[in-house]
Amino acid sequence: MAKTNTPSTNEKVKVFMLGGLDEDGKNMICIQVGEKIYIIEAGLKFPEAKESLGIEYIIQDFSYLIEHKDQIAGIIITHGHDDVMGALPHLLKQVKADVYTSPLAAKEIQKLLKKEKIAGVKIHSIKRHDKKTIGKHRVLFFPITHAYPGAFGVAISSSQGYIVYSGEFIENYDDLSENYRGNITIGADLGKEGVLVLMQESKGAERNGHTAPNHRIDKKLNKLLDLNHDSRLFISCYTQSVYRIQEIIDCCIKQERKLVLYTKELRSLIDGLAYIGYKIPDGVVVDASKIDEYTNVVVLISGQGKPLFTLMSNIANDEVNDITIKPDDLFVIASPVVPGVEKVFRNMENDIYKRDGKIINLDKNVLSMHPSKEDLKMMLFLTRPKYYIPVKGEYRMLCANAMIAEEMGIPPENILILDNGQVAEFEEGNLVSYEVKMNLHETMIDGKENWDMAGVVLKDREILSTDGVMILAIGLDAKTKKIINGPDIQTRGLIYLKDAEYITKDVAKIMEDTIEEAVKNKTYENLQVRSDIRDKVSKYLFKQTAKRPMVLPVILEINK
Length: 560
Description:
With 560 residues, the protein is an alpha/beta fold. The protein contains 15 helices and 24 strands.
């Protein structure tokens, strides 16, 4: 490997994260070398079920990147999962920059940009040993093994040494497919040239040993297919778990089972895999309309999060048109229960058991394809970094990752556990500061990203979900402002009106008195009177019920 660093110049290096620290998802690593900013990942995270309040997902605060958009050299997406790619369309609507990613992820990104009508963005399809000059700096892409084909790690050169992100990798010496084969020699080469900072993810840092071979399900699935030769299997799998999907397909080919690719997204994914060289032999895949014609067909059902398990429930309850469940059918879970889907998963289990169905959890004791302790140690051993920054994971995981680095001889003062927005600054090969911290605000997305940038809508939803709403309607003569009908009081989620009629009478009187007093004093103004009514009624309701519901007064001025 040719030496790419230039010691004659001393560029400042800044490393900070806009998401992914002390949380699951929303990953975004930013590396600033001199005046150029390199963005690695642009992911989303899903809200906890109890906090969702109609929110679909959460993305980063892009304020700093928008303010410095002319300095952005490129956006690097290491693979095609939501937690590293899902926020990309939102970012590209505000910041136009070239995107560098794997071939399959490139196709998915192009679809997203077309759907969102985003133009003026160039997508670079990265080969797994590429070396490119981006923003005047040499960027090396090295192949790793992950659940998505073509995944890679990244090394950005600087006068102080390489800044390396190892990617979401595992060491797996059994996989010879070019789309998944890693290359650990790159790490050794980087270590010889000099690594200033190494960043590694933390999701598996609490697990001992290597992840491989416990990430595989093929042995379990082959045994299951052998034991249930005459049964139909309905297998759940996340659409973005491409490695696992290919394992399931390969087992069906080996066992000579017919296979149904049940969802449109799954069929689209298989088309994408054909683009990178993975093809299913003719005759294996059959149309969904023929499910009931085979006694031992495998039905592969894909999706993301809650919708996947909801679809499985619908199938178990005979609520889909093309499948009729039979007594010998097996429901096989090959998708882990990730945060936020627990309740939907339990509901699915209940629905299947109520129909006397059989469930086999194939994912039990199978490890996710994230580096465990020995994987992380191996990369530390090869790259020999001066500084180490754990990324991607909850705080306890970051701490576990930091302890691994200390075990490997990295001095504690050179191991940085940062917060989102905290900036680590390096000069002349040394850490000079990590005191600067940006004030970040998460962005809640409920389908239209501009609906609730300030959080007002979310606050209203929280009030509605806890204390309910009261609507007060009254009709006035438009000229005289005398009451001609009402007040009419309606509540939802506050009180049972038949048990508290005095409250509605008191609230109605408050409304009438407030209007009549304003008319008498010649200070009546529709908007101001409604505000006064809201304040008075809110105070009264809190005294009576200890709740603060949303109060919505409506004054209709009617021309007679």
